[in-house]
Amino acid sequence: MNKGTIIYHPKYRFQDSYTSPKYLIVLSSPPSSIPYLIVKTTSQKIDKPEHPGCHHFYSVFKIDHSKEWFPRDTWIQFHEIYHCFSNEIEDWFANYGAEIKGELSEQTFLELRECILTSRDITTYERMLLK
To answer: What is the rounded distance in angstroms from the CA atom of residue 22 to the CA atom of residue 127?
Structure first.
């Protein structure tokens, strides 16, 4: 899977066991022994910046729906970066109906990556995998 791939997961399970439909963005394209880095998105604009682009203080990157694939204005959230091995992602497609919906443009992906790298929420390990 390429960096910037947009995955729709109809029953994404969060750390608190809550499930919800969710668009996810792949941040890395690692060898099989290393996990993918994945971030979730939201179209809920409550308490989020309105201007497109990087808002590392809020740990979000806003994309206008007219610029990329998303059907609505979308905030990519990176206060939680998920580590998923390829077998977990394969399970999403085989057993949960996940689908690849598109891919961020190279320019948007580079801006997103740079934004995440300036975030206070990223670990040293995650920073290494993104570079």
So the answer is: 24
Domains by residue range for the chain, with CATH? 5-130 (2.30.30.110)
DSSP state of 14: P
Query: What's the mean per-residue pLDDT of the chain?
Result: 89
Confidence (pTM): 0.89
- More confident of the two residues 79 and 49: 79
Half-sphere CA count of 19, side-chain side, radius 13 A: 7
Task: Give the DSSP letter string of 68-111.
Answer: SS-SS-EEEEEEEEEEE-HHHHHHHHHHS--EEEEE--HHHHHH
- For tokens 């990329």, name the residue: 68
- Using alpha carbons only, give the angle 101, 120, 64 rounded to the nearest 5 degrees: 35
